[in-house]
């Protein structure tokens, strides 16, 4: 059964030109109580009406939300459901049934008025924090957040339905593209209104980057442009340099800032690692601590209890787990820690070795192995690389085989599918040469394994590793 069958008559609207014409009624315009809010420019109003016309009915929204449950979404626990329910509670009369121009015009004016007001960031009470951008206080940032959830949910379904206006068959992926466009328009509206940027806007930009990666491809210009704006707004607001205070008294707003920056910093390293482009954030300029490893219920619960737990030694920033529980924020913290390691790797891989980096490399001593112990013969082969033996040839082959299987699993219609297939062919070629090469003694090299004990890393590392590879990707 199609996912959106129950809301078939309202699932999609025509293009904005047709939509505005269909919604516009001269009697409605004259009767519109739009004088209660400052009138926006015609260009801004057109964008506002277009976005509002694509809001799905409440029944469709509920179906979409059941399709996308992400346990790693720790922006605000329960935030998306609260946002959605408050939207239809406050504006249900304008969104259900036939959508009249006068209703949508008044709704747009109210949301524009809310968005022009400065968003109060540092609120300690969770209920007050949520109420400041939900319901009748709905902002364009709030709608942008909702459209990101609808878009991700639509992209997870392969069901088809019929556009009641255009009579065109569309897929969930096509609908995700339309919702993604609405996210972009919400961002444009915030710019045109001159609204002061805030953490809500950062979260919209973060989700927009993920959406463009999902819809347009990780290496696309659209994704890189969205990511660049995300980083620009993040640093503009100073989320990268939140000072560490002692004692730290957490609140829902302060933890959201920490969580949000951890997500932005991590995605910056992921995008850079995949594309070979330099990261836009550097650890040298970051001082924001990682979020605390606390339950969402505790964060949204009694503040006195939250402060009590925050003062305990077990909840320090250096702890991985609190109460030995694996929580969504625990995964976020782990990704943040790995992102700092990625940053160091990218500094060496994508940059030129100068100054302190070269001195650091020169200080590394790996020419002699540690003395063997009686506990294990493998220890005799270990180096100073963490006192662990190097990976075995069979392990490398197994991991590469798994990677090939994953790359071949990517559907042809998915973003970057051609790139994935190209990488898979290269890896298969390497494995074929390794496993089916000429036997020893009849032309092939007898030993393809590098003797790490004879490598002088202090002289010239580039003799052994082509760091330009990550920057150019010419081998693809």
From TrEMBL:
Subcellular location: Nucleus
Domain Xylanolytic transcriptional activator regulatory: start-end pairs: 223-297
Domain of life from the UniProt record: Eukaryota
Compositionally biased residues, Polar residues: 27-36
Region entry Disordered, spans: 1-42, 370-391
Keyword annotations: Nucleus
Transmembrane segments: none
One Pfam family of this chain: Fungal_trans
Main location: nucleus
Protein's recorded name: Xylanolytic transcriptional activator regulatory domain-containing protein
Species assigned in the record: Apiospora rasikravindrae
